[in-house]
Amino acid sequence: YSDYYPYTNSYGSSHMSFEVAKKAIDIYMNHIQSQRKFVLNKAPFIAFYGGEPLLNYDLIKDVIEYVQTQYTDFNVTFTITTNGLSLENEDIANFFKKHNVIICLSLDGYPENHDRNRVRSNGKPSYNTIISIIEKSFANYPLIYTLCCIDYRTNLHKLYDFYKQNDRMNGGIIPHLLRISRIFDIGTDYYDQFTIEEREAYINSYKELEGKYVELALADKSDWFLDLLIGQELMRVYDRMRFSKNQGYYFNNGCCIPGEKIYVQPDGSLGICEKVCFNNLSIGNVDSGIDLEAVVNIVNNMNKMLYSTCKDCSLSSLCSICYAY
To answer: Which of 10, 53, 107, 123 could join 48 via S-S bond, C-beta 3.0 to 4.6 A?
Structure first.
């Protein structure tokens, strides 16, 4: 997050040590091993996040080499979410390509949109650098994708044209767009910076593209960009189980059960996921493992809230029921 989000952990300069990472890996891989008794070929998945994770590249390199040396019977998938600037270093770029690391690159579309928030530490823009890195080192690498963040100042029509012209899906050089995310709008004053006119322009352009999406859908046609921008939001609403006396209410499941996904902080404490970075939601640490009592308390408190409050909420069918929310 950032300074705009007072309820989440603030910026820091902590670097995880290999000792902490090794303990976390061993805990995780032991759980994978035990789960394989019930789920054959359960696939381990290790992701690197920050801050900017490549500021601690040596640790990432050590982790990947440790896993591939110590856990040879597991086909572990590695992924990293990064601003990409450190990939100017060809040794780093080549290491990731050699080990088939899935790279999720933060690229917010057309240059003006990207460079509003994605500036270097000296204040200079980063778009041209990222494009140069892609052209130089990743033009033919299949396991690289982009993640795009938008807000009320994003020109959605311009964003649409940018990706339709430049995305690999359409023969361009930009790694294929994996996800479009509107910048998180709960518990923040980030959106105070925008004018009413900017908000209305954004909403109007969204509605125009939504109309285009629906028109295509009615004709049994699709558009991959509109599927990401519009379709996924509509499907979340369509798929959500509504709260009612007949249907009960929505229980946590999948990765939303604390401990199914393990988020490890630099000091070795374990959390629910990288988006739920609240100190009071710890579920253990790398020395003692997962604290099942903490997990039970979190799940029970969440379910009590869902049953007592959410079932009477008129917007419950629109809610993602995510701990971050």
So the answer is: 53
Q: pLDDT of 49-108, one tens digit each?
A: 988 999 999 999 999 999 999 999 899 999 999 999 999 999 999 999 999 999 999 999
Q: Structure tokens of 159?
A: 């964003």
**Residues 121, 122, 126: CA angle, nearest 5 degrees:** 70
Residue 46 φ/ψ, nearest 5 degrees: -120, 125
pTM for the model:
0.91
Both tokens of residue 310?
A: 């959410």
DSSP-assigned beta bridge partners for residue 80: 48, 103
pLDDT of residue 245: 47
Q: How far apart are CA 232 and CA 222, in angstroms?
A: 13
Token duo for residue 261 = 């996904």
Average pLDDT over residues 33-39: 87
Q: Are 297 and 303 a contacting pair, CB within 8 Å?
A: no
Nearest to 252 by CA among 288, 276, 218: 276
Q: H-type helices in the chain, by residue range?
A: 18-35, 57-70, 90-98, 111-117, 127-137, 156-166, 196-218, 224-226, 232-239, 292-308
Does residue 175 surpass a pLDDT of 90?
yes
CA angle 96, 175, 143 (to 5 degrees): 35
Q: Centre a 10 Å sphere on the Cβ of residue 96 and count the other Cβ atoms it contains.
A: 25
Collect all residues with Cβ–Cβ distance below 8 Å to 297 and sequence separation of at least 6.
none
